[in-house]
Design goal:
This protein is α/β, with parallel strands linked by helices and 376 residues long. It has two domains: 240 residues, Aspartate Aminotransferase, domain 2, CATH 3.40.640; 122 residues, Aspartate Aminotransferase, domain 1. Helices cover 37% and strands 15% of the residues. The chain has 13 helices and 15 strands. The strands form four sheets. Strands 1-9-8-5-4-2-3 form a seven-stranded mixed β-sheet, sandwiched between helices. Strands 7-6-13 form a three-stranded antiparallel β-sheet, with no helix packed on it. Helix 1 runs antiparallel to helix 8, helix 2 packs parallel to helix 8 and helix 3 crosses helix 4. The longest helix has 19 residues. Pfam families: DegT_DnrJ_EryC1.
């Protein structure tokens, strides 16, 4: 079975991990510090906070943004549900807004109609690796007195109008799951230009305690062992052994990006001009990091195409079932029909294989099978 996504690990990655295993640190050591510097460099930010997953990154970002009970978070339903559920863990109410028909990203007009005086965060996802309309969404968020969060799980290494993903929003989260654009096996990160927010993120992911004497509530010399827990936190610390893998993967990020673009271009060329198919949109000024190849079939036969490709040994996926259709949300009053553009996109979408080691002949085989199915 040709997978729809997989990691690319070479001997240099293995050696980077082995070097940590031979050393004195397995967690929260020099490899982690280096990885955070490396991620900040890619994002163009003064710092980064590495954590154990993309989900942990979202939770940490919402906590660092001081989202709390009574707040609302406006977000997209065309995403992995952690974009919404991590805000719920902070006590927020989720307000879903529809997406743009071309990119599948949060629609600024829909977000503007959804914000209220309780909105704390507007959270957009870089669907498939295409950056959100950050300038428009920033205005929506800031006009409401809220922050813009960019869920960039799909798009580390991308940019918009020359600005790197990581510097487009008030706070940005990354994911380093094996199928993502670089991997730490499991892992994620939070980046921002707000150093106070990064400080809160760093404490939250380290169980909420601080050894910074300038911030202690206690007075006087408490001894070299002393620390304080002033806010709730969780253990989301990324081990050095995984951070070392991430730093080494970053050395190949440009090559990964070029290959993903080449695969996208080959799919686009092979599937162009077919009335019942819609290839991914690419807006002017955007330099996507294509995590997915989201093909849409417009004649209602997505299920049949999915089964045809799976039966032919092609691993395909659907990204995503709208979040508000999940039972958890349905039981709380969210209904089908709330976000018709996202729902239509979801019912048409099928993710074709996409990863850096994908061979041209495999791409051509997928194209041939899709064209055969639609009679093109």
């Amino acid at each position: 079975m040709l997978p729809y996504g997989r990691q690319s690990v070479d001997e240099s990655d293995i050696e980077a991990v082995a070097a940590v295993l031979r050393g004195d640190w397995l967690t929260t050591g020099p490899a982690l510090a280096q990885f955070e510097r490396d991620i900040a460099g890619i994002a163009g930010t003064p710092g980064a906070v590495a954590v154990t997953s993309g989900t942990a990154a979202l939770h940490t970002a919402y906590a660092a943004a001081q989202v709390r009970e009574g707040d609302e978070v406006v977000t997209t339903p065309l995403t992995f549900f952690a974009t919404a559920t991590c805000a719920i863990w902070q006590g927020a109410t989720i307000v879903f807004a529809d997406v743009s028909e071309d990119t599948g990203n949060l629609d600024p007009a829909a977000a503007a109609a959804a914000v209220t005086d309780r909105t704390a965060v507007v959270a957009g996802t870089d669907y498939a690796g295409h950056p959100i309309d950050a300038p428009a969404l920033t205005k929506v968020a800031h006009d409401a007195g809220a922050l813009l969060l960019e869920d960039a799980a799909h798009s580390v290494g991308g940019s918009l109008d020359g600005t790197p993903v990581g510097s487009l929003a008030d706070v940005t989260t990354f994911s380093f799951f094996p199928t993502k654009n670089l991997t730490t096996a499991e892992g994620g990160a939070v980046v921002s230009h707000d150093e106070a927010l990064l400080g809160r993120a760093s404490e939250f992911k380290a169980i909420g305690y601080t050894r910074d004497q300038s911030r202690w509530r206690a007075e006087g010399d408490q001894g070299g062992w002393y620390y304080e827990m002033q806010e709730l936190g969780l253990n989301y610390r990324l081990p050095d052994v995984l951070a070392a893998l991430g730093s080494n993967q970053l050395k190949r990020l440009d090559a990964f990006k070029k290959r993903r673009q080449a695969v996208t271009d080959r799919y686009n060329a092979g599937l162009a001009g077919i009335d019942v198919l819609r290839t991914p949109a690419h807006r002017a000024g955007a330099d996507p990091m294509w995590h997915l190849y989201p093909l849409r079939i417009l004649d209602g036969r997505r299920r049949q195409l999915f089964d045809h490709l799976r039966e032919s040994g092609i691993g395909v996926q659907v990204n995503y079932i709208p979040v508000h259709w999940q039972p958890y949300f349905a039981e709380r009053g969210y209904r089908k029909g709330m976000c018709p553009v996202a729902e239509a996109y979801s019912e048409q979408e099928i993710s074709l294989p996409m990863f850096p080691d994908l061979k041209d002949e495999d791409v051509d085989r997928v194209i041939e099978l899709v064209r055969e199915f639609v009679g093109a």
